[in-house]
Design a protein that fits this description.
single chain; about 375 residues; alpha+beta; Peptidoglycan synthesis regulatory factor (PBP3), Domain 2; Beta-lactamase; seven-stranded mixed beta sheet; five-stranded antiparallel beta sheet; about 25% helix; globular
């Protein structure tokens, strides 16, 4: 496999401008807040972003992610009767209920069910303590250096904390999971569970989904210790930003300001990977053209453009028997050392195998109709 690395400043084409400049927010009610560029992870605004605080039900971002990653989303099972005996918000699970992990994920992210979080934890790892260990291992993997989880729901507990910045990192990671992003963007969901299962509708407690243009999630939270917590993500014109507030009396207003400011700091760029010609063996066509399936759109701050590069993973040569549109490589787009997009490199045309020439014996066989 051949690797070609090139800095792609020349391939950046502006496709979105910021016409309204926003001053950095000054009246944010939150004790801790952060806004990051979802594409690159760079901080666009922060206020006590690395201060450890209680995080309430925003914890369920991690719990849902791990439940999705555990697989078997539609396998039905009976909920653990002890796990669902928990205070606070609920998706309405009762002893003996039959449910799927997928339904529990909706139950966590929409009505913020503590019963759903506990039931999911037991389903995935056998106990809530074992699940907390998995949560902490995942946090370390993501780079959440100031985070420690004790339970799957986010109920107040000693040693259960994170920071606005760490929760932004978690959300950036989680939003790359298609199932997670689909669930947290849902205003409502029709699900079947119970004993016997029956259909009911769950509604999302995140008002930003209807109040803020472009909002695509993510999670609300409240406990007596944490107070109002909110994680949001929004997408506009090829730019995606993530905002987190912890202990924010006026969180809806905070997030409108934070997201607006985040968008004002970014410009959308279209990144156009190159095309290549590689030799082909075993065909009358001696080479084939490989081109990107599409361009990529990335939101970048003014100083971020210089750190973007493309790494091409394409073969040195190919063998005949290629169909048009077949993937023969990948163009990976990086911001610094972090991959932000991956574009398939496709064959522009078919390349059939050469028909072997028949020797004299073969020609005689053909004359007499012998194959």
């Amino acid at each position: 496999m051949k690797k070609i690395i090139s800095v792609i400043t020349a391939f950046l084409t502006t496709i979105g401008f910021c016409f309204t400049c926003h001053a950095a927010p000054e009246d944010i009610s939150a004790y801790s807040a952060v806004v990051i560029n979802a594409d690159t992870g760079e901080i666009l605004f922060e206020k006590n972003a690395h201060e450890q605080r209680a995080i309430a039900s925003t914890t369920k971002i991690m719990t849902t992610l791990l439940t999705i990653e555990a697989g078997q989303p539609d396998r039905l099972f009976t909920v653990d009767s002890m796990a669902i005996r928990v205070e606070g918000t609920s998706m309405g699970l009762q002893e003996g209920d039959i449910v799927s992990r997928r339904a529990l994920c909706y139950g966590m992210l929409l009505p913020s069910g503590n019963d759903a979080a506990n039931a999911a934890a037991v389903s995935v790892s056998g106990s809530m303590n074992a699940f907390a260990d998995i949560m902490n291992r995942k946090a370390a993997e993501i780079g959440m250096e100031n985070t420690h989880f004790v339970n799957p729901s986010g109920l107040d507990a000693e040693g259960h904390y994170s920071t606005a910045y760490d929760m932004a990192l978690l959300t950036r990671y989680a939003m790359k999971n298609d199932e997670f992003s689909r669930i947290c963007a849902s205003s409502s969901a029709s699900l079947e569970y119970g004993n016997p299962p029956y259909r009911r509708t769950l509604y999302n407690s995140n008002k930003l989904l209807s109040q803020y243009d472009g909002c695509i999630g993510v999670k609300t939270g409240f406990t007596d210790d944490a107070r109002r917590c909110l994680v949001s993500a929004a997408e506009r014109d090829g730019k995606t930003v993530i905002a987190v507030t912890l202990n924010a009396p006026d969180d809806w207003s905070d997030h409108a300001q934070l997201l607006d400011y985040g968008f004002s700091q970014l410009t959308s760029y279209e990144i156009s990977p190159e095309s290549f010609t590689i030799p082909v063996f075993g065909s009358e066509t001696h080479d084939i053209r490989i081109s990107p399936e599409r361009n990529a759109s990335v939101g970048l701050g003014e100083k971020e453009q210089q750190y973007v590069s493309i790494e091409y993973h394409i073969p040195r040569f190919a063998y005949a028997g290629i169909y048009k549109g077949e993937q023969l490589g990948t163009a990976k787009i990086y911001y610094k050392n972090t991959e932000v997009a991956s574009i398939p490199m496709l064959a522009e045309s078919a390349c059939i195998r050469k028909t072997p020439e028949k020797d004299v014996f073969g020609q005689i066989m053909e004359i007499f109709g012998i194959s």
